[in-house]
User: Fold this.
Amino acid sequence: MAAVVAPYGSGRHYAPEFASRGWTCIAVTPADDALPPLYRGSLDPAGYQQVVVHGDSVEETARALRGLRVTAVVAGTEIGVPLAEQLAHRLGLAGNDPATSHHRRDKGAMARALEVAGLAGPRSLSTDRLPEALLWANSLDGITDFVVKPADSAGSDGVFFCSSPAEIRAAWERLHLVPNAMGGSNSHLVVQERLHGSQYVVNSVSAAGAEGRPRHTVTEFWADLRTGTHLYDRLDLLRPHALVPRRLANYTVRVLDALGISTGPAHTELMFVPGRGPILIESGARPEGSYDPAAMREATGSDHIRDAVHAAVTGTPSRLAARRSQAHVSKVSLIAPHDGVLDEDLVHCLLTLPTVRGYVGALVPGMAVRRTVDLLTSPGRLVLAAEDPCAIDEDYTAIRAMEASGLYGKAARCTRTA
Assistant:
């Protein structure tokens, strides 16, 4: 039996995948009013043998799971990472060391862990004082672009790009002590040099190996293309044996060791900086967010949740990458340029484009949407797959044309059909 801690977002797909392996699942979650607003009211108890509500006592929750004969604990989403690690430790199960959880949740601690390990990382400061942040930024010779962000949020929430002390001050005043999307208090903020280069995402799964050393298997490489400052545009699946993915894999494995990720999935964002090579942006010890597992399985033969369950059930992440097909796959994030409502005809046209295999988001005609300012405000994300990458590019162009001409509230005609 497996316990899924905070089974929200992509974490909700754990239960059916464990069930396909003959395992039952327990959901572990804080009380609804203790959750960040993003997740309140979203737990579907179907598929779980029981829902265990976690209060203030880790020991009490561990006792409940012990009584239910839980033999694996996984984190469904970012907010469940520390608790999942503590519970696994209390139950004597496979998991990452809870003593180093801050390396996997706090962006400042993450950068310091890389420095200790001798790995390239962004120059960073975590502080609760604006004067210290300004003094530190001024001390970096030759660095004029900075990022100010929460220490423990996700999905580009609260990320500000700054190129002057005045902009750093303005970002600080917008963020400091303001609750973030993951429920953090923003008491400390992280200031980092802004990295410039090509951005990538690396998914991996880890399990115990020989002599207690973890074995890491990189399962997916994605080129991460964005527009503007925070807007996710598209992710394109890369062939694993090309030169850049090989360099990303070598660096990522060392990052996982430095952050103490020895068990389970990790979702790692990197920047390949000219003259410096791969540099970590951040890594999360949980599955990738915002994707459609069924579509990924149709396109490639597996997905991050299925890979994580395979490792949890078998105790090994080996051969996961070998099961992937060589299909061309892209994930396209929708970008609403203004508030509006979804047009019925264009939603139908969007979802029946030839290469669309699935999507996430409530893409229901007439549904209200907000102007997209980051990943959390995107109306949805589509999975596109084809043998010919040109077919994906054609549908990508059609998607952006629909957005420009009426998907969010203005009349337009469908211009691409199967």
